[in-house]
Amino acid sequence: MLSFGAVLSIAHTSVAEVVNITLLHLNDIYEITPIEGGKRGGMARIATLRKRLLARNPRTFTMLAGDALSPSALGTAKINGKRLAGQQMVAAMNAVGFDYATLGNHEFDITKEEFLQRLSESKFKWFSSNVDNEFGQPFPNVERAPIIITQGDRGNTVRIGLIGLTIDSNPAQYVRYRDPIETAKAQVAAMRGKVDVIVALTHLSLAEDQQLAVAVPEIDLILGGHEHENIQQWRFVQRPTRSARCFDQGTPIFKADANARTVYIHTLRYDTTSRCLTIDSRLQLITDAIPDDPTTAKVVQEWQQKGFQGFRDSGFDPAQTIATTSEYLDGLEESVRNRSTNLTDLIAKSMLREVGDAELAIFNSGSIRIDDRIPPGKITQYDVIRILPFGGKVLSVEIPGELLKRVLDQGRANRGAGGYLQMANVRYDEKLGWLIQERSLQTNRSYRIAISEFLMSGNEQNLGFLSLQAPGVKRIAEKRDIRFAVIQEMQAMK
């Protein structure tokens, strides 16, 4: 565990007591089952941790800083023709006993009907201060800025105001975003005199969280998400003077690792006499050393079984072992969006084999959603579904060399994002430029390529110019779902 402390001054309380409050903070959870070969994460382990914290302090609140409903392999399974679309995650979060959740950008990957249904199924409280429906109104069952009212052992009341802020990176038609900083300023003004502590639960980029801390110094603690990697920072600005007796150490910003590899445990100690707030934050690893909570484990197992049946109905055999590997297959988001890995090479090669006569293969790294390293050992069809949950056909396409060069250049420029391209039979040389099968790319000829269906849709970041309607592009054939191609490629590894 790692420990960080901060001391902040806050509003007036009249009765003497130090009230301890625990916040269990998670973000970016896409899998209800453990990852990394069962060694890390898992909602049933989170439930056990929550129960332990509650036993020590009944003033414990479990919070999600966005991204749970999508993307997930299990969420793509269809039951009676309908995707689970996060239904399994809401059921698991209900079983764990979450108290609050703010919205992440991936909540809006699913349809409006699916999203509203997930809200109605949730036993915990969703809240958002800067996200509205298409009519500019709050979504049903989504509060603007709830206030936690809790009492100390001596009966003294402490009020914690919550602000929920979401990045505007998913322009779904049924969603409208408002400026997060201006929204936070308005909410802080509305809370003035009504709360003792202000906590922002955010799903913003780190840069936006930093800007928030500087622009709205009244916020005492920022619990964030979106980055998928644990972060702890402080921003030091001139904060409002509330008590000369408190030493101000700035506004802390925390983010945990995705898929509950880690969580943050924040202990807030509010002194009702001095009006000072002490914050102690610990990064807690979630490993197989934490036993499963039986009730939550049963819920997780039931939903996994439902999802697996849905995959079987779609032609997959999720439990089937298709290969055995002696090395890790690297599907971590930080890896695949910045460089090629043994996993991306395998996928690209499977596309070449699927098309047969293609000179090269290209797919977008954002189609890999597993954000995990598959450990040495047996690989199942479900692992492939986890890697590429959205699937899509492999296309055989003829493309002009000039357009191909533009695509490759932009894909390289997209490093760090989902539009970063993975490929086979292509490499970039600093002196020679792009090489196709070790020969310089010729802009005056066409190439036959194996390419993912999504990449040809024109919907990838900065690659809207690439589509089947682009001049000179010719669709040759539509092949199988890319996941079946990868399964076949892995079976050849045996």
Automatic annotation (TrEMBL):
- Which intervals of the chain form a coiled coil? none
What does the record give under GO molecular function? 5'-nucleotidase activity; metal ion binding; nucleotide binding; UDP-sugar diphosphatase activity
Record keyword Iron present? no
**Any idea where the 5'-Nucleotidase C-terminal domain is?**
322-460
Q: Where is each Calcineurin-like phosphoesterase domain found?
A: 22-229
Enumerate the InterPro entries for this protein: 5'-Nucleotdase_C, 5'-Nucleotdase_C_sf, 5'-Nucleotdase_CS, 5_nucleotidase/apyrase, Calcineurin-like_PHP, Metallo-depent_PP-like
Keywords, ordered alphabetically = Hydrolase, Nucleotide-binding, Signal
Gene Ontology terms: cellular component: outer membrane-bounded periplasmic space
The source's domain of life comes to: Bacteria
GO process annotations (BP): nucleotide catabolic process
Short name of one Pfam family: Metallophos
Q: Does the keyword Hydrolase apply?
A: yes
Which family, according to the similarity comment? Belongs to the 5'-nucleotidase family.
Name of protein = Metallophosphoesterase
Species of the source: Leptolyngbya boryana NIES-2135
